[in-house]
Amino acid sequence: MVYANSARIGGDRFERGDHDYVRRNYGILIGEANRRAHQDRDRLGLPRAVCGQNVTVGEGPQSLEGVPRSFTLNSNEILEALQEPLQSIVSAVKQALEQTPPELGADVAERGIVLTGGGALLRDIDKLLTEETGLPVVVADDPLDLCGARWAGAFSS
Question: Of 63, 57, 20, 24, whose CA–CA distance to 41 is shortest?
Fold first, then answer.
């Protein structure tokens, strides 16, 4: 083990970003019942905007009157809502790279970074991390599988 750190940036932080953005900008409270917003966010990924495309239509009670109201978010708005958790991921990756010894860093520079877990499912997260680190980044074939161990075995040979 060379470096270990747990950056607790998961689905809850992304959902909180969605909820806070809609409440702040539309005055609407959304919750777990509004699955479409979360499915669109996950499907589109959105570390990058998709040309202002309208992607999410949701409903929730207006916070002041309690009357259900619809809203539409475009990809730029979802990107804005997710900036804080995305930047936390970028910072955690950069911190891990800074803590990596030079001899291992050379291997990472040559072979790249493999993303696993739920965050790897965000579309273009690999491209965002490539831009931010200058290193090759790929998403594992099955990022939700226990592939961290599988990939470690592949690189140890």
Answer: 57
